[in-house]
From TrEMBL, chain A:
One of its GO terms (molecular function) is isomerase activity. Keywords: Cobalamin, Cobalt, Isomerase, Metal-binding. Its cofactor is adenosylcob(III)alamin. This is Unannotated protein. Residues 9-136 form the B12-binding domain. InterPro entries: Acid_CoA_mut_C, Cobalamin-bd, Cobalamin-bd_sf. The keyword Protease does not apply.
UniProtKB/TrEMBL annotation, chain B:
Pfam families: MM_CoA_mutase (PF01642). GO terms for molecular function: cobalamin binding; methylmalonyl-CoA mutase activity. InterPro entries: Cbl-dep_enz_cat, MeMalonylCoA_mutase_a/b_cat, MMCoA_mutase_a_cat. Keywords: Isomerase. This is Unannotated protein. Residues 34-558 form the Methylmalonyl-CoA mutase alpha/beta chain catalytic domain. PANTHER family: METHYLMALONYL-COA MUTASE, LARGE SUBUNIT, METHYLMALONYL-COA MUTASE, MITOCHONDRIAL-RELATED.
Length: 143, 561
């Protein structure tokens, strides 16, 4: 499977944490990924177990979580743990939004694959999701 | 008023048009602003005549386009409402005391003013021991879940001289009850209290958190809070329509003003349906308006908002009292326009937003801190925001003249054009059966989302300049201090809640919560409007927690999930 293979249609789950507010950016990212030809499952404010469960049920390649109002590290850690508990630790997690400098080492320690702070271009976000999806088990299975 | 192009064009305008044509040919200098309104390169008296704006009322005169007072900042300048919130009550009290020392808690007539934002659990009505919220406790706002928290936060304050503003989502009614109960324990009666609760109890556009009330339940509850306050806490604002948050969700100014006013209409229609007088309910209303994207447009939309609030309340609802016709406006600069890149330039953006707010004649002002795209504000950033407001107030002459842009051919024309566009937008909502239907169908949200994406597209293509992001980009890494709340707060908040629960009279608390459920059910059935908020205050006096009260309210009034 390669990036230009017409069978390569990344599937992405996007959400915000249940304990957050302001979901403008996640909607914008969803549209940008769809415009790029990806399949996007957009759920809104959910707890970590629901996010992990939906990701597995929907068989997505990448999970993106957007933050605004605190709890960045704690929620991400819970999500990664929920994926691990379900035997899907290989699913890449991307976080974005108001990510503070002191959050980044902890997020990286959780195993987050990319962090997008304000002002990133949509093109860079799209490219990251594509690249991560390309390496996912579901896409490898297509060959 | 619609534009009447048959009015006589002045000789000077005819000559000017000829010169432009000679010099620039067919070049089109008209631009389209964020409200979708065409903006001419020059305005003159012809534009006013075409809109029938030759004779305008003065400030303090209906429909209050020019302001709600006959003289304004000359008599009483705006309140400084720096938004603050982190940690627990005793932590935040330190930031309040800093503001006091720096002259920044300036309320009306020598009093103090504080604008408090809650962490997401408190804002949504969850106690700190609710599963999954631990990492958010005290992280982006103050953690409050019990009456005692306000007694700690406000110890020694004279609440009769304190404007206490609370920014809160689904948890608003119960959070307000905790404040009223704490005030009672401190010796203050409801009619001595001043301030407002935003009461964002329905998630219109996703900006107010995930879990919230059902659309229909939320309007019923909003009217209950309004009816209670009209009788018991008459100087407290009971609901804020956040044009600001709708803008921040991505709406154009016309959509944001239109949706804010459609919310006013929905609440007053609910009050009418319940057989209540609309004047006392309307008197509890206020607006939160965003500034900082386009100076003249910001002034124009605010003037349009004031005149539409007055006209709608008078014409649709027969309101006649001062409080019900005069829109009180709390300005805030735009957080979504603050960049993480070159963050110090946000100081300049915020200063222009604050200048626009002062020229628009707002009643209170939040100047954001420049580092908010990075995290919670540092003390240095908070002080700079405050100085911004103080320079505008004290040095730049903004207090001398009320509505200083009145009579500007441009601003008067734009005020009128924005008003027309807002009325057309409200007509679309009316055609669909009103705002609640537009929320339930997803139309309101889709409208805003489309505008949000368009804004992002314009930034990405460079059509819309954003300095530091798509213009004048620097790549030097910048080191910035970022404020970090104490991570131990979560544990302390939970321990403190457990302590209060162990000490309270459990039987009295249980009885108060049972009465709350009964009152809620009565109100939901359309009876005894105001009794639910009264029962909330009684429960708060019995030391019921925020989360215990909220669970009952969610059960009775329904949720959006």
């Amino acid at each position: 499977m390669t990036n230009d293979d017409p069978r390569f249609v990344p599937r992405v789950l996007l959400t915000k944490s249940f304990i957050d507010s302001h979901d403008r950016a996640i909607g914008t990212i969803a549209k940008a990924l769809r415009d790029d030809g990806m399949e996007v499952v957009l759920i809104d404010y959910r707890v970590a177990d629901e996010i992990a469960g939906t990701a597995i049920e929907e068989d997505v390649d990448v999970i993106g979580v957007s933050f605004m109002s605190g709890g960045q590290v704690d929620t991400t850690r819970s999500l990664v743990q929920a994926l691990r508990d379900a035997g899907h630790e290989e699913l890449p997690v991307v976080v974005g939004g108001t990510i503070r400098p002191f959050d980044i080492p902890d997020l990286e320690a959780c195993g987050v694959k990319a962090v997008f702070r304000g002002g990133e271009t949509l093109a860079a976000v799209v490219e990251t999701f594509r690249t991560l999806a390309l390496g996912s088990p579901r896409q490898s299975a297509v060959d | 008023m619609a534009i009447d192009s048959s009015t006589t064009t002045s000789a000077a305008r005819v000559a000017w048009e000829r010169t432009v044509k000679d010099r620039y040919g067919d070049t089109d200098f008209v631009t389209i602003n964020r409200s979708g309104v065409p903006v001419q390169p020059v305005y003159d008296s012809t534009d006013l005549a075409a809109r029938g704006l030759d004779e305008a009322p003065l400030p303090g005169q209906f429909p209050f386009t020019r302001g709600i007072y006959p003289v304004h900042y000359q008599h009483q300048p705006w309140m400084d409402l720096q938004i603050i919130g982190y940690g627990m009550a005793r932590n935040l009290r330190e930031r309040m005391d800093l503001l006091d020392r720096e002259g920044g808690a300036r309320g009306y007539f020598g009093g103090a003013a504080y604008n408090i934002i809650f962490d997401m659990p408190s804002s949504m009505g969850f106690d700190p021991d609710y599963p999954g919220v631990e990492g958010s406790i005290g992280d982006a706002g103050i953690s409050v879940c019990k009456t005692e928290d306000y007694e700690v936060l406000l110890a020694g304050k004279d609440l009769t001289k304190t404007h206490f503003s609370m920014v809160c989502n689904a948890g608003s009614p119960a959070m307000f009850a905790l404040y009223v109960a704490a005030a009672k324990r401190m010796g203050f009666e409801g009619d001595q209290l001043k301030g407002n609760i935003t009461n964002y109890i329905y998630d219109f556009f996703g900006h107010c958190g995930g879990m919230n009330f059902s659309p229909r339940g939320s309007y019923r509850l909003a009217v209950d809070v309004g009816a209670y306050c009209a009788e018991h806490v008459p100087n407290f604002g009971t609901i804020t329509f956040s044009e600001h948050n709708i803008c921040e969700a991505g709406a154009t100014n016309v959509q944001a003003v239109g949706l804010a006013l459609a919310s006013v209409i929905a609440v007053l229609e609910e009050a009418q349906k319940l057989g209540l007088e609309t004047d006392p309910i309307a008197a509890g209303m206020g607006f939160h308006v965003r500034f900082g994207e386009d100076l003249f447009e910001d002034v124009a939309k605010t003037r349009a908002l004031r005149q539409l609030f007055a006209k709608i309340n008078a014409e649709r609802f027969g309101c006649t009292t001062n409080g019900a016709l005069r829109a009180r406006i709390h300005a805030q600069t735009a957080g979504s326009l603050a960049t993480a890149q070159q963050p110090r330039i946000n100081i300049i953006r915020n200063a222009y937003g604050a200048l626009a707010a002062a020229m628009a004649g707002v009643n209170g002002m939040t100047v954001n801190a420049y580092d908010e795209a990075l995290g919670l504000p540092t003390e240095e950033a908070v002080t700079l925001s405050l100085r911004t407001s103080q320079i505008i107030a004290e040095e730049q002459g903004l207090k001398k003249v009320t509505d200083p842009l009145a009579g500007s051919y441009y601003v008067e024309s734009l005020t009128n054009d924005v008003e027309e566009a807002v009325l057309a937008f409200i007509a679309k909502i009316d055609e669909q059966g009103g705002l609640i239907e537009c929320i339930e169908s997803g139309w309101a949200r889709a409208e805003v989302a489309a505008s949000a994406f368009e804004w992002r597209r314009e930034v990405e293509t460079g059509e819309r300049p954003l300095i530091g992001v798509n213009r004048f980009v620097t790549d030097e890494p910048e080191e910035h201090n970022v404020f970090r709340p104490d991570p131990a707060v979560a544990r302390m908040a939970i321990d403190d809640l457990n302590r209060v629960k162990a000490q309270r009279d459990q039987a009295a608390c249980d009885a108060a919560l049972t009465r709350l459920r009964e009152a809620g059910e009565n109100v939901m059935a359309g009876r005894e409007i105001g009794s639910c908020t009264a029962a909330l205050v009684d429960a708060a006096l019995a030391d019921a927690s925020l989360g215990e009260m909220q669970a009952i309210l969610f059960d009775v009034f329904g949720t959006n999930k």
